[in-house]
Amino acid sequence: MTTSTALLLADLTGVAVFAASGASAAVAKRLDLFGVVFVGFVAALGGGIFRDLAIDEVPPLAFADWRYPATAAITAAAVFWLHPQLARLRTTVLVLDAAGLGLFTVTGTLKALDAQVPAVGACVIGMLTAIGGGLGRDLLTAEIPVVLRREIYAVAALVGSVAVAMLYALGLADAGWLTAAAMLVFGIRLVALRRRWSAPVATLRPPRGPGL
Amino acid sequence: MTTSTALLLADLTGVAVFAASGASAAVAKRLDLFGVVFVGFVAALGGGIFRDLAIDEVPPLAFADWRYPATAAITAAAVFWLHPQLARLRTTVLVLDAAGLGLFTVTGTLKALDAQVPAVGACVIGMLTAIGGGLGRDLLTAEIPVVLRREIYAVAALVGSVAVAMLYALGLADAGWLTAAAMLVFGIRLVALRRRWSAPVATLRPPRGPGL
Amino acid sequence: MTTSTALLLADLTGVAVFAASGASAAVAKRLDLFGVVFVGFVAALGGGIFRDLAIDEVPPLAFADWRYPATAAITAAAVFWLHPQLARLRTTVLVLDAAGLGLFTVTGTLKALDAQVPAVGACVIGMLTAIGGGLGRDLLTAEIPVVLRREIYAVAALVGSVAVAMLYALGLADAGWLTAAAMLVFGIRLVALRRRWSAPVATLRPPRGPGL
């Protein structure tokens, strides 16, 4: 198996995992079969579509390579029919989701750097690639995005994207180090899940918004 | 009347119908005049803006040709003042909306194919062109998009976009066949409305989401 | 201080003010630190990102120049820790927000015109640049966008963008006149706030939506 085949397989695994997460949320909201597949598609590919628009890689990979939408649609449809069993796999899904987070962070940041985006912007794009699908999933199901409310999730992606940008600047962005960066995100996310780490919430009485 | 004039008129009819649908939803949510016009604009032109960004046709047609935003704005403003009468036209609006769905599916898929997007991606873009405005309308009015919950709507668009992609591959994408594809979407949608067809909803107790 | 330095400072002031508005809304929704920073980022830079995608200036300025995301993030984090004090500054925030509205309207419209977007489209893009961040903020916090419901806000931006397009057509788009256009938006917004002007809301019993 060549490196690029390995990367494609890893990428499609990330797509499948995020599609499963989106589809599960859609089933819980009682959406119909189409809705479940669509939310799965957005959860799996929304972050990458935004990334590709921002770096002007058009058409976005989600439309240019049929294996991406096919993987997302098949996975989401499978969740639609199998979801009672999936409920028992909750821990597995969370672990796979953490793996997807690590992978999408690394590929997103790397693609932005390769497209000449400066380091800070590339880190933001990398993080948005990883969390964008989940944001889209929550917007479609009329929830305040969970990534904004709970747990260490986006922060793990941000740490990973900064690591990738530093490796890139040092000329160390090879397969080994990039895998390590993905593992770092994966590890932070798993530890955060296990220890129930959360980002702080403001504790004082909230002011009225500026009413604009 | 030349073909391109006919196409433009058909296109603007689609814009007007979708603008009316968005404006009606906004009136029902008690938005102000600007809100009604804005939601009408998004409902009419949001799908096309996304399509044009995805195929790198910039600026999107909604900004490049003033007749598109003007048609959307005037229609939405008319709904704002005339909406009690429109309520009695509910069936007419539904039929026109089905016509708009067929038209936007065909033009969206065709533009994507012309921009060298592979067939599967072009079908997805064509469907998104047709349903994107309605998604935007529902997001702006804080609803779970109705297209994800109810009735055969996006599926009709998907069938039409697949038909267009097949015609294109066979070299048959001429005015006659494309009109037939638009009629196919229109017909499926009307029959689905009449017979109250719906996509299936998962019937079992929903699991907890993956909690990501 | 050169003109371009002045423009950059003014631009970053707008970013800071909109970030503060987004962060305040996020604090009120009990989002965590990351959520507050993220909503601040979207409120400050979302409109500009959309503008840059629509005129094909990629990567968008929010990713291409680190000072933009840094200003947004630092301001939002400051609001997270300081928000009780900010509540007392409500009037100040509203005035600064009106200034940001004027500035973003002028720069957004001007950039679109420079990118060869026709006048009507450029006005729409200019207005979207100014109100887009607030729309994103409200979508992320699961609110119907306040700009669609209340007060003269987007309309002030629209008036300003039309003024800029007219100045541009007349060859008068120099620093003095553009500043006047920004002041016009600022003034309309302040008077609207003071007099509690609102756009009209449809008064009759709303019909059912077209149910599409």
From TrEMBL, chains A, B, C:
Residues 9-83, 95-168 form the Glycine transporter domain. The chain crosses the membrane at residues 6-26, 33-54, 66-82, 94-113, 119-140, 152-169, 175-192. It comes from Micromonospora echinaurantiaca. Belongs to the UPF0126 family. Keywords: Cell membrane, Membrane, Transmembrane, Transmembrane helix. It is found in: Cell membrane. This is Uncharacterized membrane protein YeiH. The keyword GTP-binding does not apply. It is a multi-pass membrane protein. Its main location: membrane. One of its GO terms (cellular component) is plasma membrane. InterPro entries: Gly_transporter (IPR005115). The keyword Nucleotide-binding does not apply.
